[in-house]
Amino acid sequence: MTRIIAGKARGARLAVPTAGTRPTSDRVRESLFGALESFDAFAGARVLDLYAGSGALGLESLSRGAASADLVEHGRAAASIVRRNAAIVAKAGGLSTARVHESTVRSFLQRAAGPFDLVFSDPPYDLADDAMTADLVALAPLLSADALVIIERARRSTPPELAVAGLDLIREKSYGDTTLWWAEPATAQPEAESQSR
Fold it and tell me: Is the distance from CB of 13 to CB of 82 less than 8 angstroms?
């Protein structure tokens, strides 16, 4: 079990899949969401939670004021738990229910409309680096101009190829075996500079 940390659904208890997912630890979630609060990242945000697991990241965002949350989870058992958790959070906080998509991340991104303002990507540790990069490339056109993308991986993992996806790194922080990379859409090159290349 884990809980919603703050917001309208504070204290709501969430079930965690017993296999096939790697839940974000309470310590990492508390630090991450405290930092996101300082960025004023939640009010009215359209949130996307990829490899959702229990859905805790997207649902925490809804509790804290996000306008919507799309939770993507491929595993059938995990997606069922995400749906139940979404209903619990909606009821506890008087919130709209998150949309749960039982799908691979790549399939979802190929048909999604966007734009998204806050994206969590917490893939399994065994996801290959090239698959991670391909997901980020597919995500990039779905981002709003001032979007934040939070990528969580094992500290020993190769850092994500952000530039390939048109993203700039703005923060990197490790917690034990976990590293979070914060990214935003790359700023467009000034026209004169791009013409001189």
Answer: no
Q: Do residues 17 and 81 make contact, with C-beta atoms less than 8 angstroms apart?
A: yes
Q: Residue ranges of the domains in the chain? A: 2-18+26-187
Residue 51 near residue 72, CB atoms below 8 Å: yes
Q: What letter does residue 104 receive in the DSSP assignment?
A: -
Quote the DSSP letter at residue 14.
E
Q: What is the pLDDT of residues 54-98, one digit of tens each?
A: 999 999 999 999 999 999 999 899 999 999 999 999 999 999 889
Confirm whether pTM is higher than 0.85: yes
pLDDT in tens, 45-55: 999 999 999 99
Q: Of 62, 86, 60, which Cα lies nearest the Cα of 73?
A: 86
The CATH class for the domain spanning 2-18+26-187 reads: alpha beta
Residue 195 tokens, joined: 């013409």
> Which of the residues in the chain have pLDDT under 70?
19-23, 125, 188-197
| Residue 30, C-beta contacts closer than 8 angstroms, at least 6 positions apart | 5
Encode burial over 59-81: b for 16+ CB neighbours within 10 A, e otherwise. bbbbbbbbebbbbbbbbeebbeb
